[in-house]
Amino acid sequence: MRASKKMTGSCNEQLEQLRRGPWTLDEDNLLIHYITCHGEGRWNSLAKSSGLKRTGKSCRLRWLNYLKPYVKHGNLTPQEQLLILELHSKWGNRWSKIAQNLPGRTDNEIKNYWRTKVQKQARHLKIDSNSKIFVEALKQFWVPRLLEKVEHSSPSSSSTSTSTMEANQKNFNPQPQGKGTLTENTSSNSNIYSSNSKRIMFPYFPGSPLQNNGYIVDNNNFGVMSFNHSNTQEFRSSDISTFEFQMAEVDWTSNDLVDDTFWNMDELWQFK
DNA sequence: AAATCGTTCAACCGCATCCGG
DNA sequence: ACCGGATGCGGTTGAACGATT
Q1: Do A58 and A108 have their domain in common?
Q2: Whether residue A163 is found in the same domain as residue A256
Q3: What is the dihedral sign for C-alpha A219, A223, A226, A232?
Q4: Are residues A19 and A128 both part of a single domain?
Q5: Superkingdom of this entry's organism (predicted)?
Q6: pLDDT interval class at A263 (50, 70, 90)
Q7: One domain, residues A102 and A233
Q8: CA(A109)–C1'(C17) in Å?
Q9: Would residue A249 count as lying in a domain?
Q10: Distance between CA atoms of A81 and A142, rounded to whole angstroms?
Q11: Do residues A10 and A145 both lie within one domain?
């Protein structure tokens, strides 16, 4: 393994006893039992005292990313994905900071999501995931689609904008379809949280209609609580309005629509 | 059925920062 | 102020697994 190659002499002997790689059930149980009795922290001494043949770092990582109570496993919800996009726009690759705003999710999981899902799209398009054009693509397609998923999964969605979704399903329109789902943001506070609800902002997209809009989601599980139709605005294409985006073979029944569908943006190239 | 390829994600590494002595 | 150990963070790796050939 990588570490042992670098080790020599007695240090090597000592560390060769250390286990690496995937954790076994017994190791997990041992770690859980030890932390239950003694608490977490002081990872190096914990690693020695517990009898685990692991480094303190390894114990810490296993606990924080997997074993700790309330750590969520499984796919990120559309609400969580939206939050990641928004927070990444503000903070960049500050995975830990982003994770602090997604209860139960770890920095590692969010980082993996970004690399495997978001950057995958960028790679497919052969553009830099940090480039303006990719950010615009996110704005034009990903966010509206996530919003639709949020809306679709909402208990209150049936009476809000079903017609919009049906229109999309029958005849995809390259212009984003988030019509009627946003409430005007009147807050200038950069904190996305309010006392009784979360209003998620989209500073991600300068000049976009999303910039000064937010939507309200449930505090506990990110479920959409309400939409305000009295002050809705249609999405408008902004500075890339001349682009004729087209989705490639969209399967509207797929649960993984947003995750796995690539965008066909060949026509972007003539503007690059 | 076997080989190859692509994707995912748990785990590791190096470096930065924090903190107590 | 300095030092050394502990902890946190972000980038990277590689085993496992599913999809494709």
Answers
A1: no
A2: yes
A3: positive
A4: no
A5: Eukaryota
A6: low
A7: yes
A8: 19
A9: yes
A10: 10
A11: no
- Closest nucleotide relative to residue A55's CA, C1' based: B12
Q: Are A220 and A262 in the same domain?
A: yes
Domain assignment of residue A181, yes or no: yes
**Domain extent at residue A53:** 2-67
Cβ neighbours of A23 (radius 10 Å): 18
Question: From the CA of A81, how many Å to the C1' of C13?
Answer: 25
The DSSP bridge pattern shows strands A198-201 and A183-184 to be unpaired
Q: Closest nucleotide to A5's CA, by C1' atom?
A: B13
**Residues packed against strand C, CB within 7 Å:** A 2, 21-22, 41-45, 56-57, 60, 93-97, 107-108, 111-112, 115
**Residues A98, A107: Cα–Cα separation, whole Å:** 7
Answer yes or no: is A83 within a domain.
Answer: no
Give tens-digit pLDDT for A72-89: 888 888 888 888 888 888
* Closest nucleotide relative to residue A46's CA, C1' based: C6
Please, is A270 exposed, middle or buried when counting C-beta atoms within 10 Å of its C-beta (0-12, 13-18, 19+)?
exposed
Is pLDDT above 50 for A62? yes
Would you say A174 and A246 are in contact if contact means Cβ atoms under 8 Å apart? yes
**CB-based contact A151:A157 (threshold 8 Å):** yes
Determine whether the distance from the CB of A113 to the nearest atom of strand B is below 7 Å.
yes
Q: Give residue A262's pLDDT band: very low, low, confident or very high (50, 70, 90).
A: low
Q: Quick check: A62 CB within 7 A of strand B?
A: yes
Query: A76 lies in a domain?
Result: no
Indicate whether A53 and A174 sit together in one domain.
no
Q: Which nucleotides of C are covered by protein (CB under 7 A)?
A: 5-16
**Residues of chain A (244-263) having a beta carbon less than 7 angstroms from strand B:** 259-260
> Is the CB of residue A81 inside 7 Å of nucleic acid strand B?
no
